[in-house]
Amino acid sequence: MSWFVYILECRNQSLYTGMTNDLEKRVNLHRNGKAAAYTRSFGVTGLVYSEACATKSKALKREAQIKK
């Protein structure tokens, strides 16, 4: 099973970075206000980046790299 690191653009032009094993489902949850409090508050305009990772551990590490 692949894991994904993703970046969403919010309506206030900020970026939100997260990880998931079901990218389409997670993005839809963000768009519908049923995911992270941050994206619930600011809304989501779209997915701007995604990257597949072989394991959850690698996805966590990559997410941390992106957030630095």
What is the strand arrangement across the widest sheet?
Answer: 2-1-3
Number of strands: 3
Write down the overall geometry.
Answer: globular
How many helices does DSSP assign? Answer: 3
Report the sheet with the most strands, covering strand number, pairing sense and barrel closure. Answer: 3 strands, antiparallel
Low-confidence parts lasting 5 or more residues at pLDDT below 50?
Answer: none
How do the SSEs run, as a string of H and E? EEHHEH
Strand content: 35-45%
Short structural summary:
The protein is an alpha+beta fold.
Name the descriptors.
68 residues, 3-stranded antiparallel sheet, 35% strand, globular, alpha+beta, 3 strands
Explain what the structure shows.
The structure is a single chain. The protein contains three helices and three strands. The protein is of the alpha+beta class. It has one domain. It has a three-stranded antiparallel beta sheet with strand order 2-1-3. It is globular, with a radius of gyration of 11 Å. The mean pLDDT is 98.
Strand-helix topology:
Blueprint: E1 3-10, E2 15-20, H1 23-31, H2 37-42, E3 44-53, H3 56-67
Antiparallel strand pairs: 1-2, 1-3
